[in-house]
Amino acid sequence: MTISPKFLSGSQIRQTFLEFYAQRGHKILPSASLVPEDPTVLLTIAGMLQFKPIFLGQRTAESPRATTSQKCIRTNDIENVGRTARHHTFFEMLGNFSFGDYFKKQAIAWAWELSTEVFGLPASNLVVSVFREDDEAFAIWRDEIGIPGDRIQRMGEDDNFWQSGPTGPCGPCSEIYYDFHPERGDNIDLEDDTRFIEFYNLVFMQYNKDAEGNLTPLQNQNIDTGMGLERMAQILQKVPNNYETDLIFPIVQSAAELAGIDYHNSDEKVKVSLKVIGDHIRAVVHMIADEIRASNVGRGYILRRLIRRVVRHGRLIGIQGEFTVRVAESAIALSEAAYPNVRSREAQIKAELAREEAQFLKTLERGEKLLEEILNKLQQQGQNQIAGQDAFKLYDTYGFPLELTQEIAEEQGLTVDVPGFKAAMEVQQTTAQNARETIDLTVQGSLDKLAETIQGTEFVGYAELSSLAEVEVILVDGKSVESAAVGTEVQVVLNQTPFYAESGGQIGDKGYLKSGDNSDGLLVRVDDVKKESDFFVHFGFVERGTLKVGDSITAKIDNSGRRRIQANHTATHLLQSALRKIVDDSISQAGSLVSSERLRFDFNSPRAVTAEELQKIEDLVNSWIAEAHAAEVAEMPIALAREKGATAMFGEKYGDIVRVIDFPGVSMELCGGTHVSNTAEIGLFKIVSEAGVAAGTRRIEAVSGQAVLDYLNVRDKVVRDLGDRFKAKPEELPNRITNLQNELKDTQKHLAAVKSELAIAKSDQLLSAAEAIGEFKIIVAQLGDVDTEALKTAAERLQQKLGNAAVVLASIPEPDKVSLVAAFSPEVNKKGLQAGKFIGGIAQICGGKGGGRPNLAQAGGRDASKLQEALESARNLLVEGLG
To answer: What angle do CA 326, 328, 334 make, to 5 degrees?
Structure first.
């Protein structure tokens, strides 16, 4: 059926696309999470990402054809958001996929049919691009679809060769553009985004790219397409940009209402801010819904950065106070029909936004104070430009956009060193890139290359602690080799393994690979195991013999380490249950670490856990251990597991069939980790610490089993040592230490009083040395090493005794520390001398700063060698100002 090119809502466009391909044998699949399984990317950036293992031949497709509406996030060109008609951080990609089924001819025909017959786009408004070397695609468009050759553009790799990341599936692509102004003639420039918009990209997935950039043909020829939902909405809804479509504009309007402005009557600057808010709020709502939390690393940093950009732009358009939660309500309402998890996670979304916004508003206030200090300093020094480094500090530390700093500076008649700001930005970006969380792409690339010739690793470690296995791959420095001699660091892939690979917070097993029963046989020490795609990669060192591809070996894990890890992992499950029972049943896991020595459990909580609650939690976990609850482990459909009430672990990806660890009446979780068969095997549980690690996130560290004895032995040694030192029994130590602390405080108070009396005594000796300047008297002197408070007391006393006077005193209380105090009488103030400004200028000579009231001020410095020079300057200024 043909749909006329009248207005179609965003929801109608999405549904029309999915139904079109469903009618052509494509299975409609749900959007994947924004947290991808692919470790080479932080966030889901394309519709094909969830199908990457299928394209690589590592996993069999459920259906040869699929279609999705995939939520995506890209931040590589974040500065263009709101400034162009169609740049976004969050967007939806409509896609149809073929896994070794149809290829170029069918993909092109359907794309044309959908665009022209279903969405009703006139053929005269469409232009096509192909990869410069893809003669086949060019011929299909020209000869079978009937597009004139002059409306088919050949383009290079940057535009028409698509890849999902540094390594992995890739291939040439063909794009369909909509021409808003065909009346301008045949002078086609697809870079002109005022005339053309690319709305449909057909990727002919033919190759796999390794870490060296080499291309090898994939086992199957695949199709991966993407139609930008927002872009098609702009075309069909006939609006000037994506932001004014019904997918985003309600969010923009809600922000405009809070600011008391009208979008359409606003200038371009205000419109940009409103569009940034509309785009970023969509992004953060979906990120938090997919269990991403704000932090200073990885995807958490991206979330925090987007929230802070929303807050900054809100302030730029005049929104006062906290507002992100109210704008988020519009985004949730717009998205919930297609993505129900935004509504089910509404409370968490709003809580995260509220915490981050409140925290950032405090930071902004501090930034405004710093900017005021910078402006005052420039005015005092007679300078008219804010340094680039200062502008960048305001941006990076306090969230001030460069534009805001420039606006405030302009009001003061100042400019900003923009090149200096950009230089500082480049240094920060380089540092951030170097510090990014990445995986070993050389290993990943080599495995991707080998994926078509070997099968994934079979894990047998739930039931077996050792197994026979065959060496399938040996990597040295990321490159595949046939053998590795003694003394070589290796990464080894086996056809099966008992070694657990790092996942779900549990570390990888340690152990060894060996062949032969004598001391001359092969021995490879395994220090860690990680999972890349479907392969378990054993990181090890050849201690004896030569390891060869095809070797039959025995893989054996460290039994003792595994038992301790199992105890700690089960203990985290019990800990989460106890937290929910005693603190708050809405607590959810935010991360974990399970090693052989300890366990760490991060959880979402708006407040700290009290000492009394911690004791109750510890007691409850230990009671469950003593009750000897047996584990029931089962695999079942994920829907059934959720129906039974199983808790999902943070960050884990689940298939249709899941593994459930159930200690009936105590804890039931979806988990692929290794566990004890009975809680009694844990032995004992002890909480070591509880602390906040981020806004709304707490962390408990604990030990179990043998590690509890190790922990208690260390504490016992400390207590016995303190008892010997204080000559006290363990139970007497708290009171003894409290008494000593009180005695120390009394001594410190007495010492401060003595120092103050000494400073006063020294200062009284200066009265006779006061210098007369007209009707005024001045004293400029150094008082040894007295502290700042005593110095202040002495200066005030001298000024009061002298009456109409100015007193400047200094001391060196510690090496490399200078203290300065100025006390001026009202008559001195009338001569234009203010103690705060005066002492601040003097302190600069000693490499310091300070200030205060007109009659009393103090300052500090770092360069004691300049103190005499500073005091001489102070005397000269007083003589000049009072003479």
So the answer is: 120
DSSP code, position 80: G
CA distances to 572, 760, 764 from 801, rounded to whole Å, are 69, 12, 9
Helices (H) and strands (E) in the chain, counts: 25, 35
CA neighbor of 462 nearest in space, from 501, 493, 407: 501
Tokens, residue 384: 């008219």
Q: Rounded to an integer, what is the distance from CA 658 to the centroid of its chain?
A: 28
3 state DSSP class of 114: helix
- Concatenate the DSSP letters of all residues of 471-506 into one string: EEEEEETTEEESEE-TT-EEEEEESEESPPPBBTTB
Per-residue confidence band for 695, with pLDDT thresholds at 50, 70 and 90 = low
Q: Residue 466 above 50 pLDDT?
A: yes
In the block, which residue shows the tokens 């007209």?
774
Sign, Cα dihedral of 266, 271, 273, 278 = positive
Question: What residues have CB less than 8 Å from 348, skipping those under 6 apart?
Answer: 288, 289, 588, 604
Determine the Cα–Cα distance for residues 399 and 385; give it in Å rounded to an integer: 20
Instruction: Name the nearest CA neighbour of 601 among 584, 579, 623, 630.
Output: 579
Contact between 208 and 169 (Cβ < 8 Å): yes
Residue 749's identity, in one-letter code, is K
Render 80-144 in DSSP notation, one character per residue. GTTTSSS--SEEEEEEEEEESS--HHHHHHHHHHIIIIIS---GGGEEEEEETT-HHHHHIIIII
pLDDT the model gives residue 609: 92
Q: Looking at residue 554, what DSSP letter applies?
A: E
The pTM of the full predicted model, rounded to 2 decimals, is 0.57
Cβ pair 169, 52 in contact under 8 A: yes
